[in-house]
Amino acid sequence: MKDTFQLITDMNSDLPLNFAKEHNIEIMLMGYNVDGTEYLTSEHPENLDPKEFYDRMRKGAVTKTVALETELCRDTLKKFLDQDKDVLYIAFSSGLSSTCQNSMRVAEELQQEYPHRKVRVVDSLSASLGQGLLVHYAAGLRDEGKGVDEVAKAVEGNRLKFCHYFTVDDLHFLHRGGRVSKTTAVVGSMLGIKPVLHVDDEGHLIAVGKVRGRKQALTALVDHMEKKVGREENKIVFISHGDCEEEAKFVADLVRKRFGIKSFLINYIGPSIGSHSGPGTVALFFVGENRTEK
């Protein structure tokens, strides 16, 4: 059963479009700006190839994100309500964007317009394929025949088990996004320092460690997984990357060897998050016992 309600998310989930189509997940687009040109907006609907996006960043392009358009959110939810379907929108973390708060206001208005339908929005407290993995979990529950309220409750109750660990290759992009100081970016780059970050219980991106060297940083992601996974079962692990697929595959191989997991989804980090993290980012997502860092 795949039609008990319509599952919706946004492109910050970084789910491949073919995966979303296969699992009947609607993905709302979110605009971005590269050197003054807007993409994926109503005025400029075209999109850059991910590799071109990151190549332009490497050459110094100025990138900015654009918040989810309220009208797009309204129109997307309304499209399925008009088909007499309930809707569940799993939104980008409220700790990183106003997207969730804005969509909740839209949902409240639509609930008044469609009192016979259920309009639900859940704050994922997640980002990139961490959000995508949570949506994948919701899709599995829906396909078992569970209704919109039951799935929304399960997502809210289990979202803090969906663990995120990132590392970046160039600290200057984190500095530009206000995540680290200029001094940290300059000194860290000179010394080859690579930060390890995660998404905390409030959905914020937080540094949890630093290592020297790229390979050590990638290995540290898997080390954190070993600390967190506990007795939780992971049938599939998601990995996203900022145009460095081979390094994402290196992390997948480490996970495979250490935990015996055979199923992976690997995809690009999209422009909304990639604008802040930059080329060379690698992120690992899995189900653990909790997110809390001691």
From TrEMBL:
<dbReference type="GO" id="GO:0008289">
    <property type="term" value="F:lipid binding"/>
</dbReference>
<dbReference type="InterPro" id="IPR003797">
    <property type="entry name" value="DegV"/>
</dbReference>
<protein>
    <submittedName>
        <fullName>DegV family protein</fullName>
    </submittedName>
</protein>
<dbReference type="InterPro" id="IPR043168">
    <property type="entry name" value="DegV_C"/>
</dbReference>
<keyword id="KW-0446">Lipid-binding</keyword>
<dbReference type="Pfam" id="PF02645">
    <property type="entry name" value="DegV"/>
</dbReference>
<dbReference type="InterPro" id="IPR050270">
    <property type="entry name" value="DegV_domain_contain"/>
</dbReference>
<comment type="function">
    <text>May bind long-chain fatty acids, such as palmitate, and may play a role in lipid transport or fatty acid metabolism.</text>
</comment>
